[in-house]
Amino acid sequence: MNAAAILPSRNEPYTIAAVTTAVDAALNDARAFIVHADSSDAPQTAERFAAAPTQARTRALTGLARGKGAQILAAARHPEIATAEAVLIADTDTRNPAPAVYRALLNRVQAGAAMAIADYPRHWDEANLTNHLARPLIAAVTGNDVPQPLAGDLVISRTALAAALRVATDLPSELSACADGYGIDALFLLTAAACGPVACVRLDQPKQHAVSFPHLPAIYHQAVPMLLHLTAGWTPQPTPANRTSWMGRCPAPYRTADRELEPARLEAMLTTLDRLTPHPGRYDDERPWPLPAADAWHAVNSGTPAPDAARRLWPHYTRRVRDWLTSGQHATTRQRTQMLAAAHARLHAAVLTPSGAS
Question: Matching InterPro entries, A to Z (predicted)?
């Protein structure tokens, strides 16, 4: 299979070489091509990429505009990437890169999937956008219950990548800016889902990489408008009468890896959320989460621009994350997974009920 890889990075000199080596081992082909798409503040990341020995051919794109999506899109338009049958995209802040994982993703696309995406458990206090909004909404609307829809490790087929590039080109300006940032993950997944099957590669251990909580506002305001915009054209999927079947298989359970948060760290996270939403009491009304998320989706389907709907949803979302962290610290692993599954089902029901939108 003619394969290639894109490695987007910003200030990751301590991990880029190991990721490059693991990706090269997974490709295992001197004809393969690896593009390093870098927007670092200093040259060390690019230098360590260049120094990593590979059998694949390499190309370094440096000095790129900041933004995960902008970097990936710049690389994706490179001729060797555009002609590859499968393109691996790997997070370069990963501290435990495994060639077997990348190889498994490539194999799924080689077998006919439009996209293959890593499914690794996340610690209970992480993946808030995924667990509370992205996963249940994508499942309800598209029928694809992808446990980690915003995962940074994926392989996309040539057909799906070409479709994603076309969609990116036609986006209005505010959404184009989202695609240049963290919205790229939703763009790729939802475009691929319209092209063919989306496969998940299940992993047993949490991924070791930089924490995302400090970037919560940027991730939300770049990913959620894209998520709402691209799911708006889908017809919601009815809940199967037989709950043991979901698109021909059992729904994947939520996996929340347990760990104890230090009180000081938890307090800092809660303080940050309070600062992001100065008046959370206003949003404690008769439409508890996830109903505001369904309202946002219905609003976009009724003509509200996705960025506007996302901005209105923001305080409800931050309140949800705060409530989750506050209650989750006292819950067992089983209780946490049950709470997430229950909210998943409620969101699905609310999306299927237009009259429930306010």
Answer: Nucleotide-diphossugar_trans
The whole-angstrom separation of Cα 287 and Cα 95 is 41
pTM over 0.90: yes
Query: Tokens at residue 18, please?
Result: 């190991």
DSSP 34: E
How many Cα atoms are found within 13 Å in the side-chain-facing hemisphere of 237? 19
Residues ≥6 apart with Cβ < 8 Å to 78: 35, 59, 61
List, in sequence order, every residue forming a beta bridge with 256; answer none if it has no partner.
122
* Per-residue confidence in pLDDT tens, the chain, 358 aa: 799 999 999 999 999 999 999 999 999 999 999 999 999 999 999 999 999 999 999 999 999 999 999 999 999 999 989 899 999 999 999 998 999 999 999 999 999 999 999 999 989 999 999 999 999 999 999 999 999 999 899 999 999 999 999 999 999 999 999 999 999 999 999 999 999 999 999 998 888 777 778 889 999 999 999 999 999 989 887 765 434 333 334 456 899 889 888 999 999 999 999 988 766 555 556 789 999 999 999 999 999 999 999 999 999 999 999 999 999 999 999 999 999 999 999 999 999 987 544 4
